[in-house]
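USER:
Make up one protein:

ASSISTANT:
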Amino acid sequence: MSKRLIRIASKNIASELTNLSGLELNAILRTGNTYFGKLMSVTNEHLTLQDTRQHTHKLAIQDLFEVVYDYKDKK
């Protein structure tokens, strides 16, 4: 099974993540801080994720640099 990282720039986050609820991802802020968790929801203004401690984080899209997740191919 091959694996590759998918990087999504902040301007494309809302359009590319709309149907991927439950996906595990890394949200990288412009400050360099990184949040890891499952995607709960995404709008044009905010990305909401739940980390491994079950804490919810609502991040402003304008504060995000990019979102990175693993795309798993079934080969």
Observations:
- Residues 13-16 form the longest helix (4 residues).
- The first strand starts at residue 3 and ends at 9.
- Residues 3-72 form a domain with the SH3 type barrels. fold (CATH 2.30.30.100).
